[in-house]
Amino acid sequence: MRSAREVPGPGLKVKRGGQGQGPDVVRILHISDTHSLHRSTGNMPDADILIHSGDVAKVGSEGELGDFNHWLGGLKGKYKHILVISGNHDFWDTNWRLNRGHISNEVAQDPAYFQYKLTNARVLNHDLAEVMGLKIWGAGWHPRRGDSRSGNNYADMPAGVDIVVTHEAPYGIFDLTGGGHWGSSGQLLDAIYRTKPKVHLFGHIHEQRGHWDKAGSRYFGGVEYRPNPHSGQVFRPNGPPPANYPVEVESNNAMANQPSVDHSWTGVWAPQHLVGRPRVIIARKQPDGWHFASEARYIGPERRGILGIKELFGVEAVDESDLGLASKYLGRCDSDTGGIWLLLDACQN
């Protein structure tokens, strides 16, 4: 199979010369809310596309953004494409300077304002990027907004995209905080139902970090954030999206901890640090288009079978019928140990 021929320019549009060209499997790495702790991510997993869904910085100062941009430059040899959107924290310093007249509204409202600062990535600001055969649309935060609402109404979100990247959550999905639903958008939820993307990547709500993967008409996964690292209890677990929700992978990967939430559980104030890991999402080309799933986690033979399904999918009760429902995610790839992997595509020989 011949490789895709890329159009000159920003290196993001893929031109197909005929049927059958282009990759059949694409690896996407999702990170978010690193808050200037990007150098603590270690050796991140290999992927074709790296996507950061906002809050790259603590306050968005020139020094913070400059260091993040330099870090991205060092990743160019590892990832074919790097896409970024802005988060609320990325505009704190800008808003401070706006309120004191140090910069003008015209400068801060320039659609390319964030792109000027991050020259080693493609910044999506209500933009569509066509990457390796995938259509990826992103919209980040805006200046002069608070921390709970981005200022987007998402009326411009186009139909037919594969991946949508935002910083805020769709209302009712991974948005439960100590004060109820926060940092989410009903307009975003409506736009997702209208445009039907297959993947939605976001962050913002740290204590709701987690993912949902769709198999058939059911979702598996849930909240992963544990305020007390010594406990298995997650923060405010909540149910999956309804069966008619169109997204195959919903990923909130806000990687930094939420110190105030952790303190309320443990009584200990600790500096902000990364507790989440980069999330790999596999795109696989099928006859009816692209389909997506989160990459596997391995379970050993002692936790295999129904117990392993419970652990991996986060559901309360699993019976034998669920094994058939999840069969497309299972592969017995480790013949030496008898362990299993979730997601056949993630098996390594």
From TrEMBL:
Name of one Pfam family that matches: Metallophos
Full protein name: Calcineurin-like phosphoesterase domain-containing protein
GO terms of molecular function: hydrolase activity
Annotated spans, Disordered: 1-21
InterPro entries documented for this protein: Calcineurin-like_PHP (IPR004843), Metallo-depent_PP-like (IPR029052), UPF0046_metallophosphoest (IPR051693)
Transmembrane annotation, as ranges: none
Top-level taxon in the UniProt lineage: Eukaryota
Residues of the Calcineurin-like phosphoesterase domain: 27-207
